[in-house]
Amino acid sequence: MENSNSYDYSNMSYNMTDSSSMQSSYDSFDSMSYNITGLNTIPNNYNSFDKMPYNMTNSEILPSSYDNFTNIPYNMTNSESISRIDMNENMNDNMNSYIHIKGTEGIIFLFANIFCVFYYFIPLIWIFHYKHCFINRAIRLIFLYKLNIFKVTELSQKKFIQKSQTNTIVEPNIYYKSIYKMVNKNCLYNYYDFNFFIYCSINNFSCINPKKAENIIKGPICGMAFININDKISSGYQSTKGSGGKYIRQEKNAYEILMGSPSSMFMLPMYIGMIFSVFCLIIVLVFTFTDIKDDQRFDQVIYIIFFIVKQSGYFYINKNSFFTTLFNTTKEGILLFVINGFYLHFTSVIIPLCKCISAERLDKQYENEPTNTIQYFLKILNSPNLVEELKSIAIQEFVVENILFWENYCILQKLVTKAKHKQFNGEFENIYSQNSGNSHDEESYDPNYPLLPQLVPYFNAFYHTFIDIDGPAAVNISGSTVRRIYHDFYTYPTVGIFDEAKDEVIESMYLSIFPILLQQNRKQLGEIYTHP
């Protein structure tokens, strides 16, 4: 191309001094700089802009190198003098390169002609995996909350004593573990099997029905034939001249081509999205009307709004001005996902970091305060009202087994005291009604005192409830402590067999739920310390 050729973008006019130097077909626009005066100098095979999915403004300069027209992200005005180019018929030779495909669930890039099923199902499977992870956390929070409530109900002090006599301690993890496995594995595996079944069915459908297979490329049915999906997508776009002489891309036509008729399998993502939106709505309602505290419930609301905007925008883009504005403003709803991403990062990283910094500053500020000591925490554990507040916090933090351990440990020590004073007569209601504080008399308590036979059922129930790793309310203690308790329990059990575990549980509560109690009631707790 000669250097005398130039391109004037200001008035969108085209001149060409040497039309003979133009190639008869264009595979690339590398280093092209020329003026066009005669429209007849453009190759005849570029004759229509009807299906060109992009527009160009006169203030934007076309890059000097493009592999094909599908990568030109511009809008075009004043284009009456530009000849029409048929993108579908003339870019086939160069279409196997970087192909931009905008589907209903996002954007992917293809590098070759592929069969439609592969293009369709591979993203669909991973999209479901993403959605599964999206709601899995919320579902686990709900069941964990219900599990902790169940523990408090079934493992209270009174019920623990009564059920220890008959060895009928309820195992709450029986139903929880089954649900946990279903939420984490079974649903996902079953869905993958379902997708594989549909994949094979479509494969057989394409082979068994050759007549229908012939129409796969043009029809809405997605099969095993190798097709140029870019052709299929481009055929759904039509440049319509709107107000101001601008060419408007009609999203609805492209969507109909991609999704097909309502009976087409391309409607499956929409159905899955509807089901997922219903799940999100249920989760939002559960979080709203229960005591479950979760800073990330907003992400469920965002997805519901995104799905409504996404689907409604396609169907009502040309019928309702509100949906048109909302659809374009939110970039087809994708902007809502971006906002949601910032929100999730803010609630998952920024807010916890700020809370940690604030808690660290408070600890330094009240470092020498008596309320920050573990001795003061032991006083709180001997106060029934404050123990109930700790229990409420423990339920929210999913560590209620620590409080239940402490309460039932106190009951065991009272039973030991009664037995040692020969007052063990089987009337446990009086033991339960007494204050949960002062778990044992420090002066007369001997941790090496042999375990009396009448106390064995209660210590056995306590072990299988709180110490055994498979117990209904197993506490988080070290493995060496568990092994020592197990060894001593079956060799030479003593009344202080659980003391080491008790110390670890108290330390765990002191570091986890006690700071939360201090933040909520620091002034009140200071008064309690001053006036015990």
TrEMBL record:
Q: Which residues are listed as membrane-spanning?
A: 107-128, 268-289, 301-317, 333-354
* Official protein name in the record: RGS domain-containing protein
Q: Which keywords does this chain's UniProt record carry?
A: Membrane, Transmembrane, Transmembrane helix
Supply the source organism's classification: Eukaryota, Fungi, Fungi incertae sedis, Chytridiomycota, Chytridiomycota incertae sedis
Q: Report the source organism.
A: Neocallimastix californiae
